[in-house]
Amino acid sequence: MGRVVPGSHQRSLRALSHALSSAARPDRLRLRTRSGDALTEFYTGILDLRSSDDRGPVIHLTAGSGSGSPNLSIRLEESPDAPLPISPSLGLYHFALLYPDRRSLGAAVGRVLDEGWYRIDGAADHGVSEAFYLRDPEGNGVELYRDRPREAWPREGDEVAMFTRPLDVEELVEAAGARRDPEPPTLGHLHLHVEDLETSGSFYTGVLGLGVRQSSYPGALFLAAGAYHHHLGLNTWARGRRAPPGSTGLIGWGWRVPAEDLARVREWAGEAGTAVRGGAGEISLVDPDGIEVALRAVGEA
Ligand SMILES: [Fe+2]
Asked: 270 CA to middle of ligand 1, Å?
């Protein structure tokens, strides 16, 4: 599945002392789409997200009722002539919707199957979580998952020890009974195809301040703020496959962070010579593969 991260690389990442606040978490992403209607139909009809009432070239998707969950926002930016990238390409591998419990995950997966959605990639037990994988109408990878309790997570030293084993989807859906009303999901993590694991790993640890949570998985690196199993996965499984400029797919993603994190990331970016845009309440950077990473300050993240 790819190369193992060399040990010296692991040590150099760990040697960095920069750490984003443990309260920081990803909460939003931006997708370029050829058809806002097709994606809105999928995300509202199959995955039960809510769309903004105003239908312009930008559509906002959230989860939950009322004003929606503050922990999930997907901004669809329509560009009808955008090329569709080959799959896989550098950029998004998948983004992951985290359900609060097993019944909700089973209900969400049951709904996908009941609706006859055909772009399904599979399912897996990762030890820390149970996950179901599918694709939206433009091929963006979407994971639906739920976490096991932290005390049940497999560990190896200071790291988690996630694995990939078969998951009994039928049993998962049956556990939800006849219900198809999952509690709203949040944005649990993002997983990116990157050109170079060391370059991207250095950016996300040294500039953004994420910590290494698992370095033993072949060709991949898992990072998080605090002690979560991962808020970001990086892998080199699409190395050398760059999508044409302006293609559909991930433009950027964002985090909600305690206000003090903005100044800290600015400082770390300065040390690394990385450009930072933005002002008082929000800053953004561009990762080594051209993905925008935004940080928005919130009073209580
Ligand atoms: Fe994932």
From this structure: 30
Q: How many CB atoms lie within 10 A of CB 81?
A: 6
Q: Cα(91) to centroid of ligand 1, in Å?
A: 14
Is 65 among the domain residues? yes
User: 161 C-alpha vs ligand 1 centroid, how far in Å?
Assistant: 14
Q: Per-residue pLDDT tens for 221-256?
A: 999 999 999 999 999 999 999 999 999 999 999 999
Q: 54 C-alpha vs ligand 1 centroid, how far in Å?
A: 31
User: Is 169 buried (19+), middle (13-18) or exposed (0-12) by CB count in 10 A?
Assistant: middle
Note the pLDDT tens digit of each residue in 15-48.
457 999 999 999 999 999 999 999 999 999 999 9
Ligand 1 center–CA 233 separation, angstroms: 7
Q: Is 291 contained in some domain?
A: no
Q: What is the CATH number of the domain that holds 51?
A: 3.10.180.10
